[in-house]
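Checklist before submission:
- one chain only
- standard amino acids only
- sequence pasted in full

Submission:
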Amino acid sequence: MLSAYKHRQPPFIQMIPLLLWILISSLHQHESVAESSLVSKIHHASTKQQNGVHESQHEKVVSVTGDGIIQSPDFPNTYPRNTVIVWRLVAVTESSRIQLTFDPRFGLEDAENSICKYDYVEVEEPVGGIVLGRWCGSEMVPGPQVSKGNQILIRFVSDEYFPSDPGFCIHYSLLQQRQSEPEAPAVMPAWMQGVDALSEAVAGFSTMEEVMKYLEPDRWQVDMEDLYKPTWQVVGKSFFHQKKSRGVVDLNLLREEVRLYSCTPRNFSVSLREELKRTDAIFWPSCLLVKRCGGNCACCSHNCYDCQCSPTKVAKKYHEVLMLKHRAGGRGLQKTLTDVPLEHHEECSCVCKNDSD
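Returned file contents:
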């Protein structure tokens, strides 16, 4: 009877098992394809993240036998994103020096807080890794650079945002040194020296008159008069830290002296180029005194194992200095008296590190 009943079933009822099998197979196949696609996307993303800008990073060695150019990709049009290129310029002889001159057409992504963080070109001395300068933006064309040895590095970096135009173009040439005159670089005009070399030379003078004579031997007195002519620039300020006077010594005073002088604002000398993060300028004096917290905190607290002398009141103060910069796209140095802001610690206190955490 059962066999007969099965034979009497309608055709679509008999096909139900077959349809179910096809549907289940299709679902499994769709899940497999989706999973494969997801894995493929994840693998692609991780590869891109792993490589990043390093995908296009490479170094090009350029043998310098005469004049030539180094330029950003697609110059004078917009350069590509996510790019790191290093050119190593090598002169043919050990006694040769390489001079770099920037084309007046210069434009990269702007700096942030006067610091070139994103897109920039920098020049570096291979020996010691000294960065002669890092530049970005379009307001100022970098001045000429001269290598200390027979090699020099040019590094171009761009991130994934805001590429600019025209980029940069650097003309390089050879400066031959005479073997009998090893001190020839010292005779080089001041404006032709790199920022680091000029900063080192200027730092060795004791008076502004000596600085101006070194920069312009023939007209230094005229430059001195020009510096002090009334201009629109704000007049500089001087700041002093006044210590309070104390009365007759007693036990309370002894305890107070420990608090006051164990952790106090003290004179620290700071390099202006490092403090201001200005690799494009030279300052004289090159260092200034600022008040920064210093001392020890031995009597901070018996429950604290790491007590630090930290500022509790900070002020920004301005100091007038002489600033030197290479003129954009031309010869000579721009000399101005300018005010530079420096951070001063006015009050200090011993703070337990655990409390600050």
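Reviewer check: Confidence is low (pLDDT under 50) at residues 1-8, 30-57, 233-249.
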